[in-house]
């Protein structure tokens, strides 16, 4: 576990200067909202084969949701789908307080800054929101042979939104 002051610094840095921020034109995306607190996150992913070639996010909300999205993009860009899914599971365990006490998985790196969220039940959803979007995207791309568009994804998942991208009839 990181010292609390270091964790706060990492979270603030990623909230104030989010990495990999903004639309990834032409890439599939999912927008999820947390109606309890008003967080909204859109995640775009571009795969080359089985590797995450580019990963971006955008949104609004609390420091936890926005820094989690930024940290996620940094941690997963360049990883394979399997590595991303495994890291997402490790991150979820940490946030939900299910990881072994005192166990710091070195693969988490700066994501460890969000480990304190496990003590704040209401904030767990904030930290996991971008990760849920990514998992939805990776699952949709796998199910649709990596050729999902916003309309197909919307039919499969009510949380997917077009976000203003033109459809096939445009």
In short:
The protein has 170 residues and is an alpha+beta fold. It has one domain (4-143): Sufe protein. Chain: A (Alpha-Beta Complex), CATH 3.90.1010.
Helix-strand blueprint:
Blueprint: H1 4-16, E1 29-34, E2 39-48, E3 51-60, H2 63-76, H3 81-96, H4 121-143, H5 150-156
Antiparallel strand pairs: 1-2, 2-3
Helix pairs in contact: 1-2, 2-4, 3-4
Describe this structure in words.
With 170 residues, the protein is of the alpha+beta class. The protein has one domain: Sufe protein. Chain: A, CATH 3.90.1010. Helix content is 43%, strand content 15%. It has a three-stranded antiparallel sheet with strand order 1-2-3. A hairpin with a 4-residue loop joins strand 1 and strand 2 (39-48). The chain starts with a helix and ends in a 14-residue tail after the last helix.
Keywords:
170 residues; alpha+beta; Sufe protein. Chain: A; three-stranded antiparallel sheet; 5 helices; 43% helix
Q: Structural class from helices and strands?
A: alpha+beta
The largest β sheet comes out as: 3 strands, antiparallel
The first-level CATH class is given as: Alpha Beta
The number of helices is 5
| Reported CATH architecture | Alpha-Beta Complex
At CATH level 3, the topology is: Sufe protein. Chain: A
Per DSSP E runs of 2 or more residues, the count of β-strands stands at 3
Mean pLDDT: 85
Overall tally of domains: 1
Proportion of residues in extended strands: 15-25%
């Amino acid at each position: 576990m990181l010292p609390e002051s270091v964790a706060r610094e990492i979270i603030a840095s990623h909230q104030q200067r989010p990495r990999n921020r903004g639309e990834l034109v032409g890439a599939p995306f999912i927008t999820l909202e947390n109606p309890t607190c008003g967080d909204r996150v859109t995640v775009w992913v571009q795969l080359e084969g089985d590797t995450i070639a580019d990963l971006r996010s955008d949104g609004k909300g609390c420091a936890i949701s926005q820094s989690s999205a930024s940290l996620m993009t940094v941690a997963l860009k360049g990883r394979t789908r399997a590595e991303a899914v495994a890291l997402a599971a490790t991150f979820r365990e940490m946030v939900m307080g299910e990881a072994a006490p005192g166990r710091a998985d070195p693969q988490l790196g700066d994501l460890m800054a969000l480990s304190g969220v496990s003590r704040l039940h209401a904030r767990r959803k904030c930290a996991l929101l971008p990760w849920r979007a990514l998992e939805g995207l990776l699952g949709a791309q796998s199910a649709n042979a990596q050729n999902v568009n916003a309309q197909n994804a919307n039919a499969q998942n009510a949380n997917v939104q077009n976000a203003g991208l033109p459809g096939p009839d445009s």
